[in-house]
Amino acid sequence: MAHSTCRAQTGAVAPACSTDDLLHVLRQLDRSGAQLVVAPDMPKAMILCDLGDGRTERVAVFDRELAEMLALKDWITCCRSGRVRSYSLSPDGAAALRAQDEQDGSGPRRARYGAAETPVAVLARRRDKTGTPFLVPELVQAADRLREDFVMAQLDTLSPMPAERLLRGLQERVLPCPNIAPPGTRAARRRVMGALQDLGPGLSDMVLRCCCHLEGVESAEQAMGWSARSGKIVLRIGLQRLKLHYDCLGADEMMLG
């Protein structure tokens, strides 16, 4: 589904968002344990889902203007206030989804994970002969956390570049950024820079390509001139290193989700 750009208007005019944009977010929120999370210093909003085993999965990250428009329409309802606010699907939002389903003639539809699977999610499904997964959940969470910071840092709008060039741009502060970047954006850029620096050459490029730019492992292998099937091994090593990096940061530096 193609989505138009959501733009904030000046004055008292509400943000201009297409109905398709809003319904796309609602469908991802219409699942058990899902909540929409937003904070004043976050340029993006996100949907997190409680998996019921002590883990939380980040389902989506999108412009906060979409969340504001959903609230204006009463399609979401606040379930936790404070600096970080959480929202769930409201009865009006559920009714809007039902109306759209009836208009499409498709009947009730259940949103599914994996509608656009990442390379890491694909690898996580692979198992060896003993049934051991190629990537344990903790490594998938590390990949998700880096991607979350990457989007929060507003780096996902840039053309893909080698990790060394991205790091140099972050260090010299020459990458495009809003004139007045929210504190959350600046903090996310620092976290991305720290993670890539810790990974070092090679590992940082593979992790950046597959986790942040969502490039397939085989495509990354070819672009970097590596032998076939070596990329997934390097990616796993990189994610193991990334997990250690996040473990060393401690709880104070933990991102939402």
Give the structure's gist in a few sentences.
By secondary structure, this protein is α+β, with helices and mostly antiparallel strands. 47% of the residues lie in helices and 12% in strands. Helix 5 (137-152) crosses helix 7, helix 7 (183-199) packs across helix 8 (203-212) and helix 8 (203-212) packs across helix 10 (231-249).
Q: Low-confidence parts, pLDDT < 50 over ≥5 residues?
A: 1-15, 106-116
Approximate strand percentage: 5-15%
The figure for the number of domains is: 2
Overall outline: globular
- What is the topology, as strand order, of the major beta sheet? 3-2-1-5-4
Q: Kindly, what is the distance between the CA atoms of the first and last residues, rounded to a whole number of angstroms?
A: 26 Å
Helix content: 40-55%
Give an overview of the whole structure.
Residues 112-247 form the DUF6456 domain. This is DUF6456 domain-containing protein. It is a single chain. This protein has two domains: 19-104, Arc Repressor Mutant, subunit A; 119-253, no CATH class. With 257 residues, the protein is an alpha+beta fold. Helices cover 47% and strands 12% of the residues. Helix 8 (203-212) crosses helix 10. The two termini are 26 Å apart. It contains ten helices and five strands, in the order H-E-E-E-H-E-E-H-H-H-H-H-H-H-H. The protein is globular and about 50 Å long. The chain has a five-stranded antiparallel sheet, sandwiched between helices. It has helices at 19-29, 64-72, 91-104, 119-124, 137-152, 163-172, 183-199, 203-212, 217-224, 231-249, and strands at residues 34-38, 44-50, 56-63, 76-80, 85-89.
